[in-house]
Give the backbone structure.
Amino acid sequence: MKITVLGSGGWGTALALLLLRNGHQVTLWSYLEQESATLREKRANPVLPGVPLPDELELTADLSSVRGRELVVLATPSFAVRSTATKAAPLLDEGTVLVSVSKGIEEGSSLTLTQVIEEVTQDRFPIAALSGPSHAEEVAREVPTSVVVAAKDRAVAELVQDVFMNPVFRVYTTDDVLGVELAAALKNIIALCAGICDGLGFGDNTKAALMTRGLNEIARLGQALGGRRDTFAGLAGVGDLMVTCTSQHSRNRRCGVLIGQGHLPQQAVREVGMVVEGYYAAAAAKSLADKVGVDMPISQAVWRVLYRGKDPKTAAMELMAREKKPESEEVWT
Ligand SMILES: NC(=O)c1ccc[n+]([C@@H]2O[C@H](COP(=O)([O-])OP(=O)(O)OC[C@H]3O[C@@H](n4cnc5c(N)ncnc54)[C@H](O)[C@@H]3O)[C@@H](O)[C@H]2O)c1
């Protein structure tokens, strides 16, 4: 199959390599000509050290490389999905399958990324979202990984499953596109918070509680918006939450650690260097939660730390001191 991957960050590059290994003809598009030139010269991406880019992987900054493709993967940071899809849309052949692999909610519109793509392409192309616990650094090194692909149309989900799946990359399917995308975006807020807790010097108990209660509240919002609760118990939900809250590779967690250690949020985002999706997702979650009237104490506290200058330790102590309540809304009924 002829495939173009849009976005040559760690994730786009790791997936381009995976697709190449799966026997496809792959082009990796970079946003900047300079970025593509460096990849061509070094035949490696600095964010994936020790992973060579084979000669068969075509590297370009020319967006017309989406022409004549059966499948196009969108792997830019979430803030660039709209602009990239807008520029690519007129160049796409009819029937090209689009796969969104970015994790975020668009700032301002609060749309999920497949909703953004559907809007700019006027729903002209089959579309899927791929998500799950999958750090680029590990996928590039062929560490066994499992993900889930979501599409409204089962045939599209199964086609994407076939294209990506191999002995070290297992792909499940689901029809809950909204649930998968919300889980993917919202868990980054909890990962950022896990980092803050680490930076403050809290322990394993804190993190386990944060992950459990965090999952609970992002699932509550996801369900209120139309996602399925069981999606949050799957790879895109708890799976990705576990990996992002505990991993050394997680930039959201790393950003949180810096904040917990006393860096200002903006400073921490700059220091991490790569896109910190949780920072933007916290703002989107706040407006979505306000809109549908869902209580999200952890995400709200993170939002206050990120956008209102709240001291992280005070925010944590206030969370602990909230009014006492049963663990689940379904007991004592
Ligand atoms: N890195 C991972 O392990 C991983 C895993 C799964 C999902 N993701 C998601 O994939 C997305 C991309 O992540 P990444 O790690 O590859 O990102 P990254 O921070 O490494 O950046 C990706 C690329 O985006 C490009 N870019 C910057 N501004 C742009 C613009 N205005 N238009 C188009 N492109 C632009 C940059 O040139 C860069 O090559 C994110 O949403 C992330 O959450 C990442």
Q: What stands out?
A: The chain has two domains: 2-175, 185-320. Strands lie at 2-6, 25-29, 58-60, 71-74, 97-100, 127-131, 145-150, 169-174. Residues 7-12, 30-32, 35, 47, 75-78, 80, 83-84, 101-104, 134-136, 274-275, 277 surround nicotinamide-adenine-dinucleotide (CB under 6 Å). The chain has a mean pLDDT of 96.
